Amino acid sequence: MAATRLTPTSYIILGLLEQAGTATPYELKRVAATSLANFWLLQHAQFYTEPERLTGAGYLTVERERHGRRRKLYSITSAGKQVLAEWRAQPTGEFTELRDPGLLKLFLGAKPAPLAEAQLETHRAKLQEYEALRTKDTGRRPRGQRLALDAGIAHEREWVRFWSGLAEE
Amino acid sequence: MAATRLTPTSYIILGLLEQAGTATPYELKRVAATSLANFWLLQHAQFYTEPERLTGAGYLTVERERHGRRRKLYSITSAGKQVLAEWRAQPTGEFTELRDPGLLKLFLGAKPAPLAEAQLETHRAKLQEYEALRTKDTGRRPRGQRLALDAGIAHEREWVRFWSGLAEE
DNA sequence: TGAAGCATGTAATTTGTTACATGATTGG
DNA sequence: CCAATCATGTAACAAATTACATGCTTCA
Fold first, then answer.
1. Which residues in chain B are closer than 8 Å to A92, comparing Cβ atoms?
2. In this structure, which long-range contacts are made by residues A139-146, counting pairs with CB atoms below 8 Å and at least 24 apart in sequence?
């Protein structure tokens, strides 16, 4: 078995499955949609291809439903739990760039005002969305998830501040 | 000629070349390293492969040096200038997720304190680096570049604030 | 009962990343 | 003058995105 490289995508799938116990790709997708997707969106197809890879590497098991749609039900193996735990226990100093498309345009010479206008709209909407999420089911989610949401809110506020300063010119 | 899809990478190359006039991939890389790389890092190979693609699409021209290393010198064509201008003029409401690896660990259940420790270190370093850049050659760079740097600084400050709150537990 | 939209999956394509390979230059 | 590092380029590989295809539900 070739040593499968585990990417962030892998850990996302492993993490979601650890929580869910057993799930179909679609279920994982549903779960992700309401929480993770706010700061790390996976493509539809990745919920299908990545579990397959992980199964090949021994970190998951599959079982097909016997009746009906014969969907694939994935579960995490103990090997899977282990790599996940190791990854989680290892603090990372890794860093990601902003990679914001709006900022890129600004950088490459776009006129600030109209760009700021458009950016403000989306960032304000996002901010509202996040804040609604937080006031809603607070307490229900695990701590890490709440914290991630807080981080998202803080950064959205920052974007709003940033683009606000450029909108009225 | 197949309609080549232009990605952010494409516009980065086009934008850098418009500024530079004529340049080798390595020169572009140098320029990017001191400014753009802070929020949008391109891989070494992309400075070579992307210009090739763009040349095929008619947005750049190449010429090889006659002597010595026979390096490839790229220039932007008027078609290239045009797509770049169009892109720049079109405000975008596009949105990117944070996609931060540290945040992902937190989300998936990592212990906050040690993670915060590691994250603080890198973010503090980045912040310092950016601030040094700003105080140094201020005024020399085009406005968009300065603004992008400001955005970077603001977000780094936010990260420092965020992880600080989790470090002492 | 049939159209719309969810649910499910895979294949093809494109992009990004890693790895390899070698040529120049410079300073010890 | 040779070792280290910078510069230059391409090829192979892996991953993510897009596109395709079709099966089930539900409700008008």
1. 101-102, 105, 115, 118-119
2. A141/A35, A142/B109, A143/B112, A144/B106, A144/B107, A144/B108, A144/B109, A144/B110, A144/B112, A145/A35, A145/B107
What pTM value is reported for the model? Answer: 0.92
CA distance A15 to A93: 20
For residue A110, the surrounding DSSP H or E stretch is none
Chain B residue closest to A89 (CA)? B110
Q: How far apart are CA A103 and CA A106, in angstroms?
A: 5
The predicted-structure confidence for B29-61, as pLDDT tens digits, reads as follows 999 988 898 899 999 999 999 999 999 999 999
Best probe of the A interface among B97, B121, B145, by most A CBs < 10 A, is: B97
Please report which helix (H) or strand (E) contains residue A21, including its range: none
**Tokens 């997720």 belong to which residue?**
B97
Report CA-CA distances (Å) from B63 to B1, B15, B22: 20, 19, 10
